[in-house]
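writing this on my phone so excuse typos. first protein, seq and then structure
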Amino acid sequence: MTDGYESGEIRRLGLEPDDLDGHTLDELTDYLESGRQPEDPSIEGSAGCQLALDALERLRGLGGQLIDADAAAMPEVDDSWVDRILDGIALDARAGRRIPFAPDEHGDDFAITEGAVRGLVRSAENAVDGLLVGGTHLRGDVSVIGAPIRIDIDVSAFYGANIPQAVERLRAEIDERLRRHTELNVVAIDITVRDIQLVGTWTKGTR
């Protein structure tokens, strides 16, 4: 049984350097462990790297709690849920499809990437205790302005959390962020709780 760390570091993920502007996730893990010093402009200036670093830093905070859970849980904590979280982080780092904004009066063409939208969804977990976002998928043709889009999200819940309440809070938080930062026509936000983990008292402290 592992806890999401190996030799004190976040489990290594497979991700192509092209997805991270020439960097690998191994390099980002080392950079995070070094306290992001000395500062690397090629990492700090990469949107994909920033998405991956942000998610990895949140996951890193689980390390001690996962070890405690592994020792106390009956049956043992299933580490496959950590793999799902890590797979979601890897997906977030990929730019994916281009999502356009409606042209302004000057005809300027602006857009946001699918990866950035997945990053917005993942960031919403900071405002909700008891849930950790795994994977996010945008269903529909995001390249067409106004096309109906469904957001499918997998989450892990922590034992003791009020799961229905936490799910509704997460849905509301995601909806608000997507309305504020995108022009997607989101017709549904479907959240699936894939598993429940015993990880002691879980709070993010951000509301």
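second protein below, same order as before
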Amino acid sequence: MPYNRPTLSELRARNFAAIESELKGVGAPLRFSNLSILGTADAGLAYLHYGYLDWIARQSVPWSATDENLAGWAALKSVTQKAAHAGTNTSANFTGTPEKTVPAGTVLNRGDGYQYTTDAEIVIGSSGTGTGAITAALPEPNDDPTGGGAAGNTPAGTQLSLDSSISGVDSVVTLATAITDGSDIESEDAFRARMLLAYQNTPQGGNDDDYEGWALEVSGVTRAWTARRLMGAGTVGVYVMTDGTDTSNNGFPVGTDGISELENWSAVKATGDQGRVADHIYPLQPVTALVYVCSPIRKTVNFIIDGISTADSTTTAAINAAIDGVFFESGDPTGGKVLLSDLVIALSNVSGTSGFILTSPTANIITATGELPVRGTVTYT
């Protein structure tokens, strides 16, 4: 049975009871007497000792360890915490005098002070425009304990400014495409979950769990599924999602599907998020496998709910979150189904939905290979 750690008040009461029992005829110690102060101080020290023992107990097992002790338990299974990933952009537009150049490593500032650097030298063309790739400059860990990767995600059309002026080059730079692949340092809860999976799933030299575990080691990747023979005999498909603080792409990876750039087989090479995962898996996979890393395809599901047409914004937001939660838990791009009963139960648990009728969908949601359900419109009648 669990051990009930005594509270500070209980320890003080125990000390006073012991003092009274040992000093016959003295009675209860006065509030500011020496005996009362000594009893209270001793109770405080004992309470700290109980707390330290409790902390030792938590660190002594992998499922409750924290900080460096969690990292130590994870290291026994070769699991390391994922670092922040710097967001990138392949199309930032510079303007200025033709033939002027922007050196590699040029620093650009966003309006809030977040910085980016150019990946290579950019030459202003005859039209007065030059396009190049930029990468977020992650802040120092002491400045941002999250790693600052997600903070660098920026929508298309955002204007940056040169940190130092360059002769013949305009100071304003415009992002032609969004930056969505930045991610923070892996949270401790997510790190612990991956570590426990490593303890539970012994490596099997390339089974489903191995591929999913390898994919989850990549910064920003939060979910992964394995599809056997996705592209024919000898191939393995790995679907990934990058759910995080940036919701502009609903958690779907940004890039193109394909195999690793390190693979010399003549097939389409993956880029972006899919490319990062493919390149990470390549040196770990069995030598006979040809691995395709893919993004799931959105299967938009619209909802019609009767009986609660007066639901306020708080209720509708909670309903959206409940639907998203079911899709998150039950969605499977390797082919599966989302049970209608799960959706009904999730909606009924939302405060303010008493009397609702789910008019659409009317049956379990079946997903084909590659599809992942995503909430569409929710109509209230």
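Helices lie at 8-22, 34-59, 67-75, 188-200, 208-216, 272-281, 313-330, 340-348. thats all i got for now
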